[in-house]
Every structure is written in structure tokens, then in C-alpha cells.
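1st attempt posting a full record on here, be nice pls
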Amino acid sequence: MTRRRRRPARLAAVTLSFAAALTLSACGDGSDSASNDNDKVAGADAANEPSATPSESEPTEVDRPKVEPPVDVTYRFEWGKRGDPAEDAVLRDAEQRIKAVDMAIAEQDPLHEAYRFYSEGEAAADSQKYIQEFVDHKARTTGMARFYRESVHVKNDGTASLAYCEDQSKAFNKFLDTGKTDVTSVTKDSYVAYAATLRKNRKGVWVTERLVSERGSAKCQP
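the predicted structure (as C-alpha cells):
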């Protein structure tokens, strides 16, 4: 009998302190452990980089990595312009981080430069483990993810908090060796709440330093 592989859940990385409660859901009877084979932890070298203070001038141009997920990975960001330049910048960079993780999954690269450009510390390390889970199962994401009910607060010390919901009801896993998409039913767990802390670095980029999630959150239900 062929043993069915565990399906990595379609969710963003969670911090290590919440891993036991919030990590990848299981399908079948495979192991729930993430790979620890990578010697280098993503974002570790940059985690202690000093924050840019509000008085420091921001660079006029930043050499950002190109973020291009596969054409069958689409997004619906219901994040309207907030009218505050700093808050809008936080949302833009958070959006790029989300897309960069999916691109790293598609390219099967747990140390992809794109997501490491937009995350550091715990968030980068957890993203690396999350991406590695897909690599181990030769899978990637497909379908559409919707992001909504955002709340952002920028502080004077160059840090920010961001909370938002994700609707994963139309986002699935696609296995690379067969080309088949694992279409799952919509349940309350298709809706995920996130809370992130970000810091503006010296390049003027809002990098995510910590990200926690709650699958099946009541506040994200339709």
C-alpha cells in the first residue's frame, strides 16, 4: 500500500513559540516535523541591524528583488490606501513578503533572497522552515488567497504592528511530481488571522520580524 504524504498547510510562517499550536495541519499519517537540514538560518545575520530612526532621511531608491510568483498563484488584497505614507508603506512591504514566500516555494528555495529581503529574525527563520516543508514534499501553492480586515499602527520608534486575515478557501497545494492539485473543502480553518511586528531598516524597507497566526480565528470568518 502506498503511504499518503502529509500535506503542508497553506499558511504563512509562525513563530517558534507558537509552533506547537499553530503549525502545519496534517493530511494522512506522515510526520509533522519540519526539516532542520539547513545550516544557515534565513535572516539571522540581519536581525540585529539597527532600525532607521524617524529623523533619518530615507533613500530615494531601493534595489528590491523582483517578486514574481507563478501565474496560477493570485492574490486579492483588500487593503485600500490609508492616506498615511508610513502605513501604506507597511502594507506594501507586507504584501511583497507574502508574495515572495510563495515565489520561494514555487522555486523550491528555502533561502530565497526575495523573502529574506522583507523578513528578518524569527519571521525569516520560520518562513525558511515553512518553505522547506513544501520542498520536502515536492509541492507548491496554487489558487487565490484573499487578504482583508487589516489593522496597522506605526510607532515613532520605527516599528509597526500589523494584523490581518487571510481567506485560503481558494488556495491549495500542487504536487510537482504529479502535477495534481490537492483541492480541499472549505471549513472554518480556511480562514487565518495574523499578527506581525515590523521594523523599518536603514534601506527604508519595512521588514517583518515576528509573525504569528491563528487558524480558524472567529474574527476572520465570513
